[in-house]
Amino acid sequence: MVTTHNLGFPRIGAKRELKFALEAYWKGQSTLDAVKQLGHELRQRHWALQAGLDLAPVGDFAFYDQVLDMSFTLGNLPARVQGFHGDELDNYFRVARGRSAQSAEAHAQCCGGVAAGEMTKWFDTNYHYIVPEFTAATRFKLDASRLLQQLAEARAQQVKAKPVIIGPVTYLAIGKSKDDTSQLALLPQLLQVYTELLETLAAQGVEWVQIDEPILVTELDADWQHAFNLAYHQLKSCRVKLLVATYFGQLADNQYLAANLPVAGLHVDAINARSEIVPLLGMLPAHKVLSVGVINGRNIWKTDLNATLDWLEPIAERLGERLWLAPSCSLLHVPVDLDSEQALDLEIRSWLAFATQKLDELQILATALTQGRAAVKDQLASNHTAIATRRSSQRVHKPQVKAALEKLTPQLGQRQNAYAVRASKQAALLKLPKYPTTTIGSFPQTADIRHARSEFKAGRLDAAGYQAAMQAEIARSIQEQEALGLDVLVHGEAERNDMVEYFGEQLDGYAFSQFGWVQSYGSRCVKPPILFGDISRPRAMTVDWIKYAQSLTSKPMKGMLTGPVTILNWSFVRDDQPRSVSCYQLALAIRQEVLDLEQAGINVIQIDEAALREGLPLRKAQWQSYLDWAVESFRITANGVADETQIHTHMCYSEFNDIIESIAAMDADVITIETSRSDMELLDAFKTFDYPNEIGPGVYDIHSPNIPDQADMVKLMQLAAERVPAERLWVNPDCGLKTRQWAEVLPALRNMVAAAKTLRANA
Ligand code: GLN
Ligand code: ZN
Asked: Which residue intervals define the domain Cobalamin-independent methionine synthase MetE C-terminal/archaeal in the entry (predicted)?
């Protein structure tokens, strides 16, 4: 007997129903009851899809974020949102999204405005959670109502329910202390509430509880390791069986600790930590269940079921009834159902599995283990065919691409001369003033632009009509930029739906789903393109647009590209070769685009690497090897140009301390970064390192509709000049302007250009 279970199911809905319901409610176009009703329906639907499992997750559904749900369960709300007297779900949205006192939303006037909770990435995924806040005054208080309600619903549907909660140590570790309180000092108090919660569930007759402790796959110091022992020795007395779930990586140093916690079971990610499973068999106490996460919960590929069984059968032999099978992690990180993809190429579709299909795979594995492979021989045979065709497909494997990769040399990533030599040649060519001004690439994506694109995609606007519409937008943005007096112009990215999808659509080796949405945060979803094959660039992707833009102005026009690391990190990528290989392939393709732009007379080229930091592995020990190939990929992309061509890169985040050496190794002539909200303090890292090239520290926050003040921007640049010599500073916003309105952008940039003029006059 093998027990099958699931760690979590995507909650956004196969057609993003939850997104649309939430947004309608937030806009005042629907009611709270409608939102709650949809939540109920989605849970029912998702449990029905999981009906074949021995245990289905309950409590994994959240209206906004599962970590925020946990904060509500533990009664840990920031002081600023307490005393709200409306519906609890309204307060929940208030914590998640913030609310202005002027807004028309419920209770805004009586209960006031609040700042949104801080959001950060959930481990190494693209999912963002609301960070729990702690202070010395933090007092936890159980509110099990949400979980109990979902449990009752599940039971009414005859679901074999396994409540899912975040474990106490992970909960503390992923939160933030707002004063000097140590998070661990809160543990004893927190454990009382966890005890109460588990006892409440026991009283409901719950047998198993999944308690997620993914922090076990990161480096833990002795205090945090000790916290695990403390916590689980205390929770041991509760009358439920605990399955401690780890995922996303290897346990490494924490393996012994995890194996020996006094709980009934342990879940391990057998995709990322496969090599740890067999050693764990010897380490686990004889009564413990081992849940093996054999189906990849982070990608969209079919599992090689036959190979998995080859590996699993001896393990099943040893574990007997103590073997559980599951996906590697919650399926939150994959789209819901491949059956919706009727437009996808049939062969490529035959290689894929979304959440629903992954659960089918789990079932096949379990049946094969309990009844023998013969019981599922047709399914195994068709899986074998899919895996074999993918492995040998000429659409995946391109000899020319592989040959080009074999020929990579360090010279390919090397500029002709060092920055100092390049800088003087570029200065002579571009003739820019001190404190040159520029923008990060995109201008507002107006309703007209979106309309033209959807008409074009629907076939109601022909290619010539679409091109004319986009050219008109480009011309408009150039007129505005000239009127503003900016120094280095951009074309405005009107023709781009998305900075990754736009390139993916034009590269060979990419496929696109229609409904492959994955939750990023709250109601926001992304639809990562699917990198399935060796990458090549059949034709130039941006040159015509940029050339057209340059033809309208005598000012330098900045060519605009997305870099290989960012394209990689925002795609579903291949599991049949290392990420680094896919990245190098992308690098060679974008390099050709860079060279074509240069050939077309474009002297400034920006290569965005917004997601470079996101790709950092969970454990610091592995950072350098990632950074090595990521930086080398950028260098291959960028550095084939002549000295006179100025390479820019852009990164929109604000932590450079620990990766500054790699940022410098990219050797871009100019880097623009997000700094406005940090008072330029993050430039300290550049100063300490003696960063040698030019920097454009963002002087205004593009996320806010507020018009930045000229004097404030002057002040920020003066702070910047204390850290970086003025000759190497640029003046620009934090990021692209596509989400803003022209009515906000124009006055903001007018003030920014005026600020640059003031700085020049004072210099
Ligand atoms: N060039 C892109 C833009 O301006 C950069 C966006 C980003 O860094 N996220 O929109
Ligand atoms: Zn940015």
From this structure: 436-757
